[in-house]
Amino acid sequence: MPAVERTGPVHTPAAHEEHTVHHGCTRLRGVAAVLASASLLLSAACAADDGGSTGTGGSPTPPASSASAPAASPSPSADLPPAKGSVEVVSTLTKDLDSPWGLAPLPGGDLLVASRDEATITRIDGTSGRKTELGTVPGVSPAGEGGLLGLAVAPTYGADHLVYAYFTTESDNRVARLQYDESKPAGQQLGAPDTILRGIPKGTVHNGGRIAFGPDRMLYAGTGETGDTGLAQDEKSLAGKILRMTPDGEPVHGNPSADSVVYSWGHRNVQGLAWDAEKRLWASEFGQDTWDELNLIEPGKNYGWPEVEGEKGEPGYVDPVAVWKTSEASPSGIAYAKGSIWMASLRGERLWRIPLSGSADKEPLAAPQAFLEGTYGRLRTVAAAGGGRLWLVTSNTDGRGTPKPGDDRILLLKVR
């Protein structure tokens, strides 16, 4: 039986995403360098403010000078985040959401949220939390870990009102764009899906689903290997990959192969995408029985699955920047704010902070730090809200959590 998202401390070898609880510490690369520079970290200047993409296809990104791939190894930032951060829950924006998955901030501060199982897109007022259903995306076939997943707002949204969605059909996973017409009645505001990429393999599990526009204004998608591990190493398959395409779904100049949207491979199930202030791409990924991962993504690189899980130092494969015991994470969405990557965890039921140095050989800057452990249950999606704030979406109504009254909800956090 193929793997499923981890739900609790039950070890089922055939269901690779359920594990016994481990009590090991989070591991990270470059610990010695971190300890040697501890005094520097403690005296660092104020944390860098929000930068890069929201990581969830949120507010339109600024124009880039070209459509080439973002640089992967920039010089370090002048201002470094503190070794230890903080999280304050400012408010609960809205409650009673059904299987929320994708989240996309709109210009002006409102949010779009996708219901995985209902296949609906709902607008959430960013101040009052009032919900307005835009409509249902036709052709979505929810089952297992599939359904209506990631959302992204086009960088040209102010002119064309295009919203992008990643979803599962009866035959595949695909990416489509829909026009959002606010002049129509509620429930009828979504135009017909215009599919820009089809043929992404689907499965009961490991459908990936996160999409986001990068600083280069290109669309990125994280996919899963559907439980068929060999697809991750098959460069001709769209499964187990990070994809990079134009807003029309075409390959981009600077991709590893000129005629392919494949950007990186060897992934098990990519669930989060975000860019930091240096325009470097980060991705969170489900491991199997041992290590979950945060990876710094470079074009044309192989991230190892299924040959490697976690840090192995094997030639030809890129090691993750940080890894977690599977009981501590089951990572989903990520976002960048205040000089750190923030990672939502499903089975781990906590929000991880990973402070960054801005230098590829010195990441992360300090040990990852956990917040909100067990407070709100499973955490699915996180998005930058500007001004050192984050939107955080819970995931307790997806069939694997234990819903409480009011679940699921969107929280507003202040972080540093």
Rg measurement, Å: 19 Å
Q: From the coordinates shown, what is the CATH architecture?
A: 6 Propeller
Which range best describes the helical content: under 10%, 10-25%, 25-40%, 40-55%, 55-70% or over 70%? Answer: under 10%
H and E order: EHHEEEEEEHEEEEEEEEEEEEEEEEEE
Task: Determine the CATH topology.
Answer: Neuraminidase
Taking the alpha carbons of the first and last residues, their distance comes to 42 Å
Overall body shape: globular
Total E-strand runs? 25
SS class: mainly beta
CATH class designation: Mainly Beta
Overall tally of domains:
1
Instruction: Summarize the main sheet.
Output: 5 strands, antiparallel
Strand content: 25-35%
Q: What would CATH call the homologous superfamily?
A: TolB, C-terminal domain
Q: Given the structure, what is the number of helices?
A: 3
Can you tell me the residue ranges where pLDDT is under 50 for at least 5 consecutive residues? 1-25, 30-51, 58-68, 71-77
Question: Average pLDDT value?
Answer: 87
Biggest sheet, spatial arrangement of strands: 1-18-17-16-15
Give a structural overview:
The chain has 416 residues and is mostly beta strands. The protein contains three helices and 25 strands. The strands form six sheets. The chain has a five-stranded antiparallel β-sheet with strand order 1-18-17-16-15, with no helix packed on it. The protein has a four-stranded antiparallel β-sheet with strand order 2-25-24-23, with no helix packed on it. Strand 20 and strand 21 form a beta hairpin. It starts with 26 loop residues before the first strand and ends with a strand.
